[in-house]
Amino acid sequence: QVQLVESGGGLVQAGGSLTLSCVASGRTLSNYAMGWFRQAPGKKREFVAAVSRTGRSTYYADSVKGRFTISRDNAKNTVSLQMNSLKPEDTAVYSCAADSVGSYYTLGSRESEVDYWGQGTQVTVSS
């Protein structure tokens, strides 16, 4: 069993930055492709970014490419999401996800097969 706990959310003005963290306990994260998803009010949850098990490869949704950076530290069992140039449309609850079967490249299409989810952290971007 893996427990994922996110932190780092908050209220920020448009153009600002936030860094989200996801800390795992229970098992090492190195066996999982990791990613971030988000869900805005009244909308479906959507893929944001993913990172490979080694941390060498990443994949982003077009809406965040060039603004967000995902990374991981397997020694610390942590995955981070650096978010820059935030926009009001980035407002959502952000959740990290762990996938033991798929790759970083397929995580976005494997939402229903994710092994573990965090509880989410709220990000609000004001205009």
Q: What can you tell me about this protein's structure?
A:
With 127 residues, this protein is mainly beta. The chain has no helices and eleven strands. The chain has strands at residues 3-7, 10-13, 18-25, 33-39, 46-51, 58-60, 68-73, 78-83, 92-99, 116-117, 121-126. Strands 2, 4, 5, 6, 9, 10 and 11 form a seven-stranded mixed beta sheet that branches. A four-stranded antiparallel beta sheet has the order 1-3-8-7, with no helix packed on it. The chain starts with a strand and ends with a strand.
Tell me briefly what this model is.
This protein is mostly beta strands and 127 residues long. The protein has no helices and eleven strands. A hairpin with a 6-residue loop joins strand 4 and strand 5.
List the helices and strands and how they pair.
Layout: E1 3-7, E2 10-13, E3 18-25, E4 33-39, E5 46-51, E6 58-60, E7 68-73, E8 78-83, E9 92-99, E10 116-117, E11 121-126
Rg, nearest Å: 13 Å
> What is the number of beta strands?
11
Mean pLDDT: 96
Residue share in helix: under 10%
Distance between the termini: 40 Å
